[in-house]
Amino acid sequence: MLKGEIITCIMILIGSLFLYRETLKFEGHEVYAKLGPAYWPKFLLLLLMGLSVLVAIDAFRERRKGEKGGEKIPEPNKVKLRFLLAIGFILSYFYLLNIFGFILLTPFFLMAFMYLLGERKKIWMMIISVGITFLIIYVFTKAMYVPLPRGKGIFLDFSHLFY
Length: 163
Prior knowledge:
Layout: H1 2-23, H2 39-65, H3 76-100, H4 102-116, H5 122-143, H6 154-160
């Protein structure tokens, strides 16, 4: 299993390097204080390359330790239930997004999803979910100039306080 992870990471790294080389050919008008057409593809590919290297290093360390699946495998019924709950969370999130708005709904969605995935430290879940929400708001509204759903009624007024 770990050998497959290392090979997959190497393939992702090679593919990312190829795609990064292709982004060097992007042409566009660079406007002062705005990002050009090649910025986000380059940024995401560099991030992907870095993460694939980190995962490969972690898998290599696990392989050297000789740990081959020390974790117990969950029961198939529990896996199906978690999968269906995850789909339900995502569909509910998309449905409620236009009502409650991104800034109010996203932290609760992230906390619920982290709980579903097994995280039980409440303070950690709150810090991560609020932090990720504000990071996404900053990136999309300030760096990419993309509006996020603000909600309706009082939720719209609440969203106007932040962006």
